[in-house]
Amino acid sequence: MTHPSPPMSLLAELTYLCPLRCPYCSNPTQLTKRNEELSTDQWKDILTQAADLGILQVHFSGGEPTIRSDLVELVKIAAHLNLYTNLITSGLLLTPDLLEKLAENGLDHIQLSFQDTLPEAADLLSGMRAVQPRKLQAAEDIKKAGFPLTLNFVVHRGNIERIEDMLALGYALGARRVEIAHIQYHGWALINRPALLPSLEQVQKAEALIAHMHKFYKNRMVIDHVTPDYYTDIPKPCMGGWGQRFLNVTPRGNVLPCHAAESIPNITVPSIKHASLAEIWNHSSLFSLFRGTEWMKEPCQSCDRKTIDWGGCRCQALALTGDAAHTDPVCHLSPHHERILAITQKEGQQAHSPSAQSFTYRTASFNSQS
Ligand code: SF4
Ligand code: FES
């Protein structure tokens, strides 16, 4: 029997706990309770299995992964297994002492998220007060500890006009890379889309600016720009193709081809508690469901882009058409493409800046925590 090629990256969602409450969070809207999270030994075993499977990179994420007191231990194991290690963090709980321990134990890279360049706008989006000075301090401490730094800005209607300032801030803080990432509308972000979606005019202006900024920062800082799905008509190869490059382990041990896959109804979600990572990657029904091209219907099946974008995003197809097996409606060939146009015309034209009242903030209480 032939097996699929091994995955390249593991997203290790250590916890869904987070001090912030961003309305664009891509975590599921039903969050795992603290007492359901995997133990340190379970995560160590997952990292060992990941290396055995051929995975090259592990991204420690959440929620906020620095909440886990075993983070340093897990980084140490991953580094020992020769995995490239990246920490995706809001920075609020990073201390010089923790950074020193992470450096000593082999952490390779840190990606620090920022909500905005303006302190009051950062507070509005994070649902927390006085967040910006703490993030600026975290960036300084990360650089002092010797880590390569990437800054991540999630872009929406309320901050898209400040992309030039975001890049300037990244450069001033010594970032090697700045990600300007338009929101992917899953989880909390989907609920909040009417308050977040930018207008076509805003997006076009931003794209022209970024093209100019690429030249301006050439050889000094890398700019990654994730274009907004809702304003293109050619889909992205979500996750590099379903079950082809990426797997995600959730705080309770579910193993997914993407972070939003649990939104798909009538699927059997594999768990690391009942099968190995290799069994799940090679044989589970979930990873096989949309792998390759056999599952595709028209127009994808006869399209010459089908092994380039793999039909786009399954979770977006589900959210916007009700069926994850449909062509991503972002595609101009999709029979549902007019839904995207209707959304951008209705939600993208609201001129006002978002306010706290316009958001449903990610819950901080997690239904029940223990
Ligand atoms: Fe991609 Fe399918 Fe659209 Fe072709 S028809 S561009 S494969 S989403
Ligand atoms: Fe699930 Fe795109 S987020 S396939």
Automatic annotation (TrEMBL):
CDD domains: Radical_SAM (cd01335), SPASM_PqqE (cd21119). InterPro entries: 4Fe4S-binding_SPASM_dom, Aldolase_TIM, Elp3/MiaA/NifB-like_rSAM, MoaA_NifB_PqqE_Fe-S-bd_CS, PQQ_synth_PqqE_bac, PqqE-like, Radical_SAM_PqqE_MftC-like, rSAM. It is an enzyme of class 1 (oxidoreductase). Residues 351-370 are annotated as: Disordered. SMART domains: Elp3. Residues 4-219 form the Radical SAM core domain. GO terms for biological process: molybdopterin cofactor biosynthetic process; pyrroloquinoline quinone biosynthetic process. Belongs to the radical SAM superfamily. PqqE family. Catalyzes the cross-linking of a glutamate residue and a tyrosine residue in the PqqA protein as part of the biosynthesis of pyrroloquinoline quinone (PQQ). This is PqqA peptide cyclase. The lineage of its organism: Bacteria, Pseudomonadati, Pseudomonadota, Alphaproteobacteria, Acetobacterales. The gene is mftC.
